[in-house]
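Dock adenosine-5'-diphosphate; give full complex structure.
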Amino acid sequence: MDHINIWKKTKSVLKDRLPTHAFETWFEPIKPLEVNGPQLVLQVPNQFFSEWVDLHYRKHILSTLEGLGDGPKEIKYVISTEKIGPLERTTDNIAVKSNPKKTLPPYLSTGYTFSAFIEGPNNQFAKAAAQAVAKSPGEQSFNPLVIYGGVGLGKTHLLHAIGNEIVITAPKLRIVIASSEKFTLDFISSIQKNRTAEFSKSYRNADVLLIDDIQFFQKKEQTQEQFFHTFNELYQLGRQIVMTADRYPGEMSGLQDRLLSRFQSGLSVDVQPPNYETRVAILMEKAEKNSLELPYNVIEFIATHIKNNVRDLESTIIRLLAHASLSQVDIDFPLVKKVLKERLGDTVSADISAEDIISRVADLTNVRADDIVGPSRRKEIAEARQLSVYLCRELLGLSLATIGMHFGGRDHTTALYSCKKVQTTLKTDKRFNRIVGTIKDDLSFAIL
Ligand code: ADP
Ligand code: MG
């Protein structure tokens, strides 16, 4: 049996054994790559995914494999941005679909496209430059293009997006994409194996050379020398070069001056951390991509607390998905808080509860907490109660039924009525609006 059939059989067994949600979340995205000796090699979307599957489903997979007889007995995970053979790439790549004979450059991540890249003021210019380069590679003014900025802000994504675009629009062009680390390792191993000519050829054949993380070249004299020659040769032939770096090239130490001045001879564009609106848009896109339905207030909440790094936004979504699928719970506020706490660690203080909200409202309105949850219909008490109910819904995301229970066993229609009442007053009464804003700020700050 080949890897595809082995995996098909394994999946059909597991599908019956695991909850549907878990199966769909964790098994549908896996692609079998090959059988290598005793190992079945599986491609997974990211590191977290492989850890999760390994931790929770390893036993299931292994026992199923065993049941299939003489096949592989171990599992190896490969992250999809790592090298995978050209044949395995066929399923979700448009270029390959439209032209089955076309093989993709190794190391190109097909998911990193321009359409999956959310644009905001922080990255607009970088995206526009990358798109211009993809449209007409080799044009002098954008050559080389250097995209620089902090960790997790989309540099690698843009680099691969250029590759993915050119694969479709100019399939004849040879694209070579590599991290500078890979360039270095290739170079070193070519020396060891006396194959430097082959090494040079593989890089100098490129029509488009895409090199990720050039800061890795710092202090590697001999590799820089090699890269300098590769760079010059390609540049003189009018080939496009795009590089990414963790800082402005001019600020890199440990690079030869002549290399630096080459890097700076084209265009350097930066990517900055996303602003609030962009973070919300990114979260919505990632949630949709993962078929995850997130209430808007949850998205806002995450966007408020994770600010500097798109990778963290993304992994929060993946973790939410993981928790929800494992414990089969809906994604609600308490779960989101739990996940954010895991991420943000000690900077997060204790939870607030419905009781905390009630006592805060009691303080501010001079109504006793006992009265707020009690039966009295006096106007100021009823208003304080309605406000507390509304805040429990907004800040804690509690269900109406649960809220009703906190308020002396009222039913959910009463809770719903309170929320609506407060929302209406908020629209018309500016002073009330300000008070609620202050309480919300106070309390939501306490949540984290
Ligand atoms: P960098 O190379 O700058 O460290 P990456 O390109 O690896 O960052 O981005 C980290 C993750 O965040 C990737 O999964 C990428 O797809 C995602 N990402 C970054 N910026 C955006 C964006 N503007 N829109 C959508 N996804 C993004
Ligand atoms: Mg990167």
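Observed: The pocket of adenosine-5'-diphosphate (ligand 1) is lined by residues 112, 116-118, 123, 151-157, 282, 310-311, 314 (CB under 6 Å).
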